[in-house]
Amino acid sequence: HELDDRVVAVLGEPAGAGLFRPAAPLPPFDYTALVLAGGRDSLSATLIETAAAAAVPAVLDTYGEALRRGAAAGPAIVKPNLTELAALAGPAASPALAPPADRPADLATAAAAAGQLRGAQAVVVTLGPDGLLAATGDGCWRARVTAAVTGNATGAGDAVAAALTHGLVLGRPWDERLRHAAALGAAAAAAPVAGEFRRQDYL
Hints:
Strand content: 15-25%
Number of strands: 8
Distance between the termini: 42 Å
Oligomer: single chain
Order of helices and strands: HEEEHEHEHHHEEEHHH
Mean pLDDT: 75
Low-confidence stretches: 1-29
Radius of gyration: 17 Å
Structural class: alpha/beta
Strand order of the largest sheet: 3-4-5
Number of helices: 9
Helix content: 40-55%
Shape: globular
């Protein structure tokens, strides 16, 4: 409830239909992009819609119903992992999306499941050691690092989201965005401390 209280303090009390009555005049929405991680089922969607009204693109990194509702609000990018995608796709797709450790996920099934996240402009699925898969209205792209990575994977997904946001803001083409995101994610996973990376691992 602390998060709810902070949101109400900034946005005001809920006015129904996902809207808020402002508690006070809001400052200008002066952001280049909005990145959301986690969040309640309806909160992410509300913030994405607020950002979209100010022409600010959003990147969503969450799971479950918050992922489905947030995607429907029209973010620029949603970034589920295979487990999160399998949970939304249902039992029929789960064996292909979450196979045993000795077998890779089926990328065609992943791309089809990504298409179920209607509303999002692009879906980037993190595939663990198999890299990234992006599904957009213009096609699909895949990127992965060639060398095996060992270290601390905590924070690697956040590094991928940061790199995707960087590419979004700069308007980079999708193949370049994915290469950058896969490289930064792998560099973060190779670092022994979460949230750090060595420049030589990224380059």
